[in-house]
Amino acid sequence: MAALLDYSAQLLEGAGLTLELAFTSLCFGLLLGLAGAAAKMSALPWLRQAAYLVSNVLRGIPEFLILLICYFGLSNLINTHFAGTLSLSPFAGGVVALALVFGAYASEVFRGAFLAVPRGQLEAARSYGLSRWQIFWCVQLPQAWRICLPSLNNMWQNLLKDTSLVSIVGLEDMLRKASIAAQFTKQPFVFYAAVAVVYLLLLAVSNPAFAYFEKRANRGYASPA
Amino acid sequence: MDQLVSLLSQSWPALLDGLWISLQLLLLSCVLGFALAVPLAVARSSPRRWIALPSRLFMSAFRGTPLLVQIFILYYGLAQFEWVRDSALWLLVGDAFPCALLALTLNLAAYMAEDIRGGILGVPAGEKEAATAFGMSRLMVTWYIVVPRAIGISAPTLGNEIVLQLKSTALASTITVLDLTGVARRLSIESYTTDALLLAGLLYIVIAAVLSLLTRYGEACLNRHQLR
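YS: structure for the whole thing
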């Protein structure tokens, strides 16, 4: 237990990196998901098929394998085609992999949510003379957001748990810091259990946050009796 | 493409061995995990708190932490204690394959139990009342009516968990199990390319596609009494 206190600063630093990684991947993942959903609902058949192919492929491969491919593959690609001037940091590799996986799942969720907005509302908005951008921003997005929030909560929790994988490619997240501390102190159980507890806490905190978002998004709707 | 073909011709025995280990992990963890999930879900739905609480704690612990952390706790963490190393438990967590299998099983059991619990909540009250009116005891109602119906109701999500579990088995490679991912990692390090990793990804996609077909078929068999 005393060892845990000695390394608590290290672990906190690692937890910071874990959160940083999760939030960065979340931002890019949401953008990728929106782009993917747009492509899946596009009028162009080849774009639709390409989007479905990519998202199905990404959802069929283990996240860990995607991370390895992104990390080693992208470094190889950059080194062979751009004369090795650029090296991909483990952080960037992790963000690319996690955002791709998140985006693949999110595109499906967003597509369902946008389809769930009644067509009549779009026609009404158009007949009021709203521009396409206004329709997207003021009519479609707020309602789609409301519908996909519960799924987003699930995906966020998965994302947060998946960040632990980057410790394998050498990024010093919470789990990696714990591994290092475990090696020095010969108390692996204490440190890994501590990491598990921190993950439990982080996930427990995100539930009320999403409950708040859902309550906000649902104002104006009658609560289900 | 040529590289991929030559890679395939050279290393397919190794990849097949890895694939076989992955499939073993998948099959065993699904069977054992499901067997564990049913009693967990029944206990979790019990109105008596002292029965529901342990199962609830188990489920939150395994659903609320990354699988990788669970694997590390079981494989590296438990070795810290001498009494574990001296006990029969060491047969399970002292070796990489059984340890990975244990972690995958417990993890899947927690997720499946949550799905089955949802199914238990969805069993129509009338069916339970009818069973009680026929003179069935509480145990009989649970075992012959509630559990089979709950499994039927939760079949689509359970099938999903099986497909997702295939992806989880890849984490066994982090504790030196030479599953498909483990073999691919080794090959890619030896050859300084990612071709082996891509090939493994392709194999995973094929298996995932086959699995989702199989689970859809199984689901139809389970719920055939409802088809018109």
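YS: worth flagging: The mean pLDDT of chain A is 89.
IM: good catch. Also The radius of gyration of chain A is 21 Å.
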